[in-house]
Design a protein that fits this description.
heterodimer; A: about 525 residues; alpha/beta; 7-stranded beta/alpha barrel; immunoglobulin/albumin-binding domain-like; 2 domains; 9-stranded mixed sheet; 19 helices; 9 strands; globular; B: about 130 residues; mainly beta; Immunoglobulin-like; 4-stranded antiparallel sheet; 3-stranded antiparallel sheet; about 45% strand
Chain lengths: ~525, ~130
């Protein structure tokens, strides 16, 4: 059956850069390990399975440069391997403990397979999970795009040099990682303002994604609403997010992830287990923390954690089947309604944080795989499309200047600018302004090697200070002290290094330590921050 | 109120950022000399932040803050219209301009759907429960 409508699925994969090589066990590095095991490995496995069966997944994945750097960091890969091995060791003990409890045993075996699959995939690619993604893109199965260098909320960077640096560094980073120019750009937090258009164009990006009300807020006429791509006045393609398909997946209240059969995120062996039994698997501080072994299901809205029932993988997969059918039925309805009204098929753009799939919503990767399979198996008049091919094949999109917007709470910049986190901006701007000023001062000079190293590291620290993650963590009150200290460390590192260069008093051992720890963007040239950039 | 643990370089800076259709965020820093002028009462302890419309430089609104506050929120005077801020201090019976900010464009208000689901916030918030 020919296609009546197109679906564009974008998964935005991002983690803040967390690398503490001096610590054998660092709590916040677990974000990365958990995301690899629960999200990235299952997603890559699903994409590879589909591809091997001749079903093109056709999804778009945005990989942030900081996540890309962590996926290629050998020290983190080694720690990840130890993490997986320690979980498998614990699972072996759990298999013994669960003898006589068939419901628990079934779930423990399920986890054993999850961690074994992760170990096998990582072994196959020697720990580098960029390799399979690159291969999938090379084979035309998926499209990979990038985002700002350290995921800065770009409308909150008032200096043009800072915005340009975030974009230029991201484009270079992508080129180094994927051996081609990036076509698309994921605006961190979907945060858009018209000022960005010229920088996007200058950095060579062909298209972006915006929140749905960016179209509603446009002064231009948008008769197709979010169901069509647009071009900004300077020719950057715009795909607007469809709120309906997002809600079904995102919302913990109304969305699929809240189903009683799905895995409960908050009940974890790390809190339930006998302390002495689980102590070897906790961090060096011995504080209870999630171990990733979550044996219970949501059970019911408002059910007390202690009253949760055991997770049943088969029952959960039955709900995945039902939810995939429901999701597609709703897309079909959207498509039919649009087609009946306009005589043409809509483009439905669904954007999600990748980590929702697997980490938060454990069954998410299975849901995505099921949706893709069902379109093929049930010969639905829908097709998965990727942005570059869609822009190349569709008629010239109409011109539109999107309105200022984000996908954050309330639709603008409130989560990143409020009374819980606004105190960080003087530090961010202090580092940024000093970086620009110093880059301008030295941009045409033949800088000695040690000074160049210090300037380049200052540029890395400045970029890391600009990350959206610190403001967001402060806002939600999760790992707030860590976020604050990271922000302050990066800003003060940048200011100190720049002062050392000017005073010609560079502390080489301290610089070397920073280069090892905050080792993103190895090819970075500080001149990217200059007002008239050579880039 | 949360704050930074470490001192920042004493330098002049006034930055205006968009927050939402109803408010701007503004913060300011002062050089050591200017801070000393406030401390020694050369300047009165209140500063005035004036918003100007960037297209014609006409005055839009103003608000007063204690000079040490360092940051605050200003109502957006006209939806979607680009503004610029200026920081004034009072001395010898007159207001004296110390700093100009960047220009900032506030978002226009959208008819927001109540059931719109935003990003991962709902999941992250749940962590706190």
């Amino acid at each position: 059956m020919s296609s009546r409508g197109s679906l564009m699925f974008l998964l935005h994969a991002h983690l803040p850069y967390v690398n503490h090589p001096q610590d054998s066990s660092f709590l916040e590095e677990n974000w990365f390990f958990e995301a690899v095991v629960e999200t990235y490995v299952p997603l890559i496995s699903a994409l590879e399975r589909l591809s091997a069966e001749g079903i093109r997944p056709g999804v778009t994945i945005s990989i942030s440069p900081t996540l890309g750097a962590m996926l290629e960091n050998e020290a983190l890969e080694n720690k990840l391997q130890l993490y997986v091995e320690s979980r498998l060791e614990l699972i072996e003990k759990e298999l013994t403990r669960a003898q006589g409890d068939p419901a628990l045993l079934r779930t423990v075996r399920f986890y054993q397979k999850l961690y074994e699959d992760a170990a096998v995939l990582m072994h196959r690619y020697s720990g580098d999970l960029i390799t399979p993604l690159k291969a999938l893109q090379h084979a035309g199965q998926i499209e990979i795009i990038t985002t700002a260098a350290t995921h800065a909320v770009l409308p909150l960077l008032s200096r043009p040099e800072a915005v340009r640096a975030q974009l230029a560094v991201a484009a270079d980073d992508y080129m180094d990682r994927f051996n081609r120019k990036p076509a698309g750009f994921w605006l961190p937090e979907c945060a858009y303002e018209p000022r960005l258009n010229s920088y996007l164009k200058l950095s060579g990006f062909n298209y972006i994604f915006t929140e749905s009300h960016s179209v509603d807020l446009s002064a231009s006429s948008a008769p197709s609403g979010v169901y069509s791509p647009y071009l900004t006045p300077n020719g950057v393609g715009v795909f607007a997010r469809d709120a309906a398909s997002s809600r079904e997946v995102w919302s913990s209240k109304f969305g699929y992830p809240g189903d009683p059969a799905y895995r409960e995120f908050y009940r974890d062996l790390g809190y339930d287990g006998d302390y002495e039994y689980i102590r070897p698997y906790l961090g060096s501080d011995g504080v209870r923390r999630p171990l990733g072994l979550k044996y219970h299901r949501i059970t019911g809205a408002g059910t007390d954690l202690a009253a949760k029932q055991y997770y049943d993988p088969e029952a959960a997969m039955a709900r995945v089947e039902a939810h995939a059918s429901d999701f597609l039925a709703r897309r079909m309805k959207q498509t039919e309604d649009f087609y009946a009204a306009r005589g043409t098929g809509p483009l439905i753009v669904s954007c999600y944080d990748a980590e929702l799939f697997g980490h938060w919503w454990f069954e998410g990767p299975a849901f995505l795989e099921k949706v893709i399979r069902k379109i093929r198996q049930e010969r639905l008049p829908l097709q998965f499309v990727m942005p570059s091919e869609y822009l190349n094949s569709c008629q010239e999109p109409p011109e539109l200047m999107p309105g200022v917007s984000s996908w954050g709470e309330n639709g603008y910049f409130d989560p990143w600018v409020n009374e819980t986190n606004d105190f960080i901006y003087p530090a961010v701007y202090s580092a940024t302004d000093k970086m620009i000023e110093t880059a301008n001062r030295f941009r045409n000079q033949d800088v000695p090697s040690l000074s160049a190293r210090a300037l380049n590291q200052a540029a890395r620290e400045t970029l890391l200070a600009q990350s959206s993650d610190w403001a967001f963590l402060l806002y939600i009150g999760s790992h707030a002290e860590y976020a604050k200290s990271r922000l302050e460390d990066h800003a003060s590192n940048a200011v100190r290094l720049l002062a050392e260069v000017i005073e010609k008093k560079i502390d080489e051992p301290a610089l070397a330590e920073l280069e090892q720890k905050n080792s993103v963007f190895p090819r970075l040239d500080f001149r990217v921050f200059a007002s008239v950039s050579k880039f | 109120m949360p704050g930074l643990s470490r001192p920042l370089p004493a330098e002049d800076r006034l930055v205006l950022l968009p927050k939402n259709p109803g408010s701007f965020f503004v913060f300011w820093q002062l050089s050591a000399g200017r801070s000393e002028a406030f401390r020694s009462s050369v300047f009165q302890p209140e500063i005035e932040l004036k918003l100007l419309f960037s297209d014609d430089n006409s005055p839009a609104s103003s608000m007063k803050f204690p000079w040490q506050a360092g940051r605050g929120y200003l109502p957006v005077p006209a939806p979607g219209r680009t503004c610029q801020a200026a920081l004034y201090a009072f001395r010898n019976g007159a207001w004296e301009k110390l700093l100009d900010s960047n220009q900032a464009a506030p978002p226009c208000a959208a008819g927001m759907a109540e059931d719109r689901a935003y990003a991962s916030l709902e999941f992250h918030k749940k962590v706190l429960q």
